[in-house]
Design brief:
- The chain is mainly α.
- The chain has one domain.
- It contains eight helices and two strands.
- Strand 1 and strand 2 form a beta hairpin.
- The protein starts with a strand and ends with a helix.
């Protein structure tokens, strides 16, 4: 779980096996980035507390399970989780194979949903927590500045 594909400006993608990290398709990397941006923007805009596992998107779990499946066979619960998530991600991307994946997927059991939640929590912690991205950093700073009381902003302007 500690294997990461690093990029200094952004949160790393956690993979099960670094040897297979280079084979991650570019589209899944873009999908992970999009999920993180959308999730981060929703968090900035919202007031609701979000659980750690909710901060990890389906594509991020797919990337992890992809490399895990190349390292060793997945158990049947994780295979079903993987197929379900992959069909969701592929549907969002309007991929023609999404229908085939959806047909293979069986509804997740309570046990499988819990395994998914635990895996997302582990991935969240392994990647170093909250997603880091230059756009999200800018938006958080902008929101913090905008929410400061007017007096403090005026004082800061005078000090500059």
């Amino acid at each position: 779980m500690t294997n990461r594909k690093h990029n200094n400006e952004r949160t790393p993608i956690v993979v099960a096996d670094l040897g297979w990290a280079e084979t991650l398709p570019k589209w899944i990397k873009r999908e992970i980035e999009a999920e993180r941006l959308i999730g981060g923007m929703c968090e900035i805009a919202g007031k609701k507390k979000i659980a750690d596992w909710e901060r990890v998107g389906d594509a991020e779990v797919c990337a992890y399970l992809y490399t895990a499946s190349l390292k060793a066979p997945l158990d049947s619960d994780l295979v079903n989780v993987y197929v379900n998530l992959l069909s969701e991600v592929m549907t969002r991307r309007k991929n023609k194979s999404a229908e085939a994946a959806r047909e293979l997927a069986e509804p997740l059991t309570d046990w499988q949903r819990q395994k998914l939640k635990d895996l997302k929590t582990s991935l969240y912690r392994a990647r170093g927590g909250e997603a880091k991205h230059p756009v999200l950093g800018f938006l958080k700073e902008f929101k913090a500045q905008a929410l400061r009381p007017r007096q403090k902003r005026d004082t800061l302007k005078q000090e500059r």
